Amino acid sequence: MTDFSVDQDARAVILPAFDSLDFAEVMLPFLERGGCSVLIGENRAEYVARAMSPERLARETPERFHACIAALKGVTPHLIVAVDQELGGIQRLQGLVPALPTLEEAQALDDEALAERCRVTAAAARELDVTMFLAPVADIVDGQNPWLRARTMGVEPQAVARVVSAFVKGVQSAGVTAVTKHFPGFNDLAEDPALVDVSLLSPRERILQNALPFTAAIEAGTKAIMTGPAPVAAIDPDNAASTSPAVMAMLRNDFGFKGLVVSDDLDAPATLRGRTLLETATASLNAGADLLLVGGGPHLDALCEGIAAATRAGRITRERLGEAAARVRQNATGV
């Protein structure tokens, strides 16, 4: 039996994302009612540019960043603080911590040296109270993919697997959770799933050939894996990976992953597929996701109340919600 209420568990499974440090008004009541995670993200322009803006770099200091997190930890001492800190891609902590190696540097370093470079970045992030990197990107893109342009680490599965493994070992040795993404790998998407309802049409054989980096991450001990934001037609043409029971079953059963499953952004058109955010969150939990990434804002309370109501009505089992919340809290406490 859980020691937490349905309402507390409904908040524990939500990872709210904010594009600035002005989140206290929303986050403090969310945490007081059971939430335990926050994603400190970037705005759309920074996401597209794969770099933080000059304005942000001038305005944000390590001291201000740390102080904003400290205010939240005053309510929830065991707090998951996530950022996008990708090797070769988006680095939310640009200007705040030592940079990760460039992709070219990473490919030239041996495994031990590469892991050490990643550890140094993660250790500095840990000093800022960051506990989770939404990275590494393990997708192999051998077609087109505007969503992952300038965020992936190569087209040769074995080479990418080596970098992914070193990244996971390095950052986790510093006490930061690596969230390897975006399972099962999106090698070819015609458009950006954050903007358009698009599906991965690659054959299952190609997807599995390109999935070696995920296997390597699991073998390296990655504590979390993020599922993707679009349907994988060869596995489940109707549901995005983050809401697909078949994709979750593949991850758990075929790949043997036992850790925390994080959804990609449930607000994405390719994930929503015409449903409400609550319907999508319910589907994601029922599929097997544990921590649900959503945009932060005043709507959070209604979303969490909706998840609690869905559980009381039997649309989500109490056991499933409790299992997901327990995995999230386990990660938050570092147990």
UniProtKB/TrEMBL annotation:
Gene Ontology biological process terms, A to Z: carbohydrate metabolic process; peptidoglycan turnover
UniProt similarity note: Belongs to the glycosyl hydrolase 3 family.
UniProt keyword Membrane present: no
Protein's name in the database: Glycoside hydrolase family 3 N-terminal domain-containing protein
Keywords for the protein's UniProt record, in alphabetical order: Glycosidase, Hydrolase, Plasmid
The keyword rRNA-binding is assigned to this record: no
Gene3D superfamilies, alphabetized: Glycoside hydrolase, family 3, N-terminal domain
Record lineage: Bacteria, Pseudomonadati, Pseudomonadota, Alphaproteobacteria, Hyphomicrobiales
Domain of life assignment: Bacteria
Domain Glycoside hydrolase family 3 N-terminal: 78-329
One of the record's GO molecular function terms: hydrolase activity, hydrolyzing O-glycosyl compounds
